[in-house]
Amino acid sequence: MSPARAQTSQAAIVAAARVLLEDGGLDAVSMAGVAERVGIRAPSLYKRFDDRGALLVAVASDVALDLGRVLADEVARAGDDPGRQLEALASGYRSFALATPRAASLLFAGVAPDVTPTPESQAVAARPVLDVAEAIVGPVRALAAARVLTAFAYGFTSMETAGAFRFGGDVEEAYRLGITALRSGLEATA
Amino acid sequence: MSPARAQTSQAAIVAAARVLLEDGGLDAVSMAGVAERVGIRAPSLYKRFDDRGALLVAVASDVALDLGRVLADEVARAGDDPGRQLEALASGYRSFALATPRAASLLFAGVAPDVTPTPESQAVAARPVLDVAEAIVGPVRALAAARVLTAFAYGFTSMETAGAFRFGGDVEEAYRLGITALRSGLEATA
DNA sequence: ACCTGAACACCGTTCAAGT
DNA sequence: ACCTGAACACCGTTCAAGT
Description:
The structure is a homodimer of 190-residue chains.
Chain A: H1 10-24, H2 31-38, H3 52-76, H4 82-99, H5 101-104, H6 119-137, H7 139-161, H8 171-188
The first copy, chain A, binds a DNA duplex (19 and 19 nucleotides) through loops.
C-alpha cells in the first residue's frame, strides 16, 4: 500500500560519491559503496541515475560549481587590477586542486570516457576566468586566453598531484614562473 | 618433459595493450583482451607482469619513449634558434597527442592511480624539452621552464582531446596564443 | 514511487595441474 | 619455464517482487 518513501536524495548521493572519490580514487566510487553511505542498496541508485557514468558526471558538475564559487571569490577579493586578479585565480585554482586533487581531476579531461561536467556547470567555473582574460587581452582574444590559463593551471596541478615532477626543484616556484610568463606574454599581445 | 616455450614477449604484450587502449580506452585494456591478442590466456600474463597496473606502467613508459623520439626529431629539424625549437616542440607534442590521445593521457597525470611512465622513460621524453628550456632561460631556470611548457602542452591537449573546449572558437589558435605568450614571457625572464 | 534480494555477465587474480 | 582451466571475490546492471 503505502509506497516506499525516498530515503535519500541526488545531492546526498553525489556528496557520498565525492567522499569516496577523494578518499580512495575513482575505483573506490562503487555503486555498492555509494549506496551503503546513503543507507540504501546499489540497485536503488538506478532510480536517480541512469548508470555509474551519469553519477560521475553529476559529481564532476558539483565540483565545477564549487570551483566557480572559489574562483569568483578570489577575483572579488583581488581588487581591480586585472593582473592581480589573474594571479589570484591562479593561486586559488592551485589551492583548490591540491586540497581535492581527485575531484579536480574530473574537471576538464575525461579520466573515464565521457566523465566531464555538464556544459552549464563548466560555464559557471569558466566565468571568472573569462572575465579576467577579457580585461587583459580584450574581448576578441578573451576565450583563447582563458583556455590558455585554464590549460596551464589544470595541466600543472594534474602533474603535480600525480607526482609527475620527480626530478627535484621547487614546484611552486615553477608554477609562479608559468603564471608570470603567461601574464606578461598575454599582456604583451593585448 | 619439454617445458612450455614462450609464445609471446613483453614487447608484444605492451603493443597489444596499446592497440586496445587507443581503440577503446583504458577500460578496453582487459587482461583477457590483451592475452587473446597475443595468443595466450589471461593468467599467463602474470608470468611477465605482476598485475594490470604493472602492464599499464609498461605501456605508459613505451609511450614516453616514443614521445622522446618524436620530440628529439622535432628539435633536430628546427635549426639552431631556441625560440623556433620551442615552437617545434609545442606543435610536435600536439600532433602526437592528437594522433594517439589515449596513449598521451597516460604520460603525465595518473589516470589510474600509479599509472605513470617509469622515471627513466620520462627522463627520455623530458630531455629535448629541458635542452630547449635551458637555451632560452639558462640553466638555473631550465627545469622550471620545462615544467611550465610541458604542463601547458599536456593540459591543453588533454582538454582538447577530452572535448572540454565546448564554447566554440578556434582551438588551434588558442594553443598558438599560449605558446607565443609563454615563449615571450620566458624570454623576458631570461 | 521507491526499495530489495537474486541473478547475470564481466573483471582481475590465484593456483594446482599440465607439458 | 611457460601455459591452462577452474575457481574466487568483486563489480555494474537488470528485474521481478515487495511496501
